[in-house]
Design goal:
8-stranded mixed beta sheet, about 40% helix
Length: about 260
Amino acid sequence: MKNTEHNNSIIDQFTKQATPFTEMAGHSNESSFQLMFDLTGVNEEDTVLDIACGPGLVTTAFASRAQHATGIDITPAMIEKAKEIQKEKEQTNLSWKIGDVTELAFADESFSMVITRYSFHHFVDPAKVLGEMNRVCKKGGTLMVVDVALPPEKREAYDNLEKLRDPSHTSAVTLQEMLDMAMKLNLNDIKTEWYKLEMELEKQLTASFPNPGDDEKIRELVKSDIGKDNLGIGAHQVGDEIHFAYPTLIFVGKKTCIISC
C-alpha cells in the first residue's frame, strides 16, 4: 500500500475513533503513565515531542512534568480532541501540529525527549519513524516507544485479527525488532517494561470501526482462542463477557552523544 493511501486509511479510522478512543478508561490509566514517567525520567527541564499523539492523553500527561510538550498527529479530529483536553486541564505549556510523522517538520535536535504511544503498529516503516524521532532528539536525549509487542510465533495471527478490527493496522512489533532498530541508531541505556492493557471485547468493538461483517469474525476468532492464546492476548471469559489484554511494551533509549554530553 502506498504511503499516501495508508495515511488516508489512518485518517479515516481515527477521525471515527477520536471520541471513543479518548473516552476509553484504559488509555488514561495512571499506573501506565507512572511507568512512562519513571523510565524516561521526564522533568521540568524537558522539551517533549509526542509523535502520532492522537487526542493528546500522553502529551498532556508529560506536559504536567515537563517544561513544554508538543503533539503532532496526522488526523485533524485527534488534534481537536487534544486541544479540548488541554483546555480542560488549563495547561499552557503545550503546542499542537497536524502532520505526517514519517518526515517530521522539525529541525535536528529540537527536543530533549521524543515519545510515542500505540502508534508503531500503524507505520509501514517503523524504523524510518524511529530514525526521525532520533534525528529531532538532542544528543543525550531520551526516546520512548510504547506499543503492543508480540512473540514472533503469535504475531501473524494477532495481525490478522487487528487488521479486521482496524484496517489501518500494519503489524505489531517484537521486542527483538525494537532492539535491532535501537542498535542501528546506536541508542544506549536501553530500558524496557511491560504492562497489560485490559479490554472487554464488546466495548473495544464499539470503539472500533471494522468493515461490515468483520465484527462477527473478530468475535469468533477471540472466542475460539480462549484457553489457547494463539493470538497472544490472553482471551478469557468473565461472566457473559469476553476479556483480553494487549501485551504492551515500554521501550526507552538514549540518543548517543558523539562527545561527552
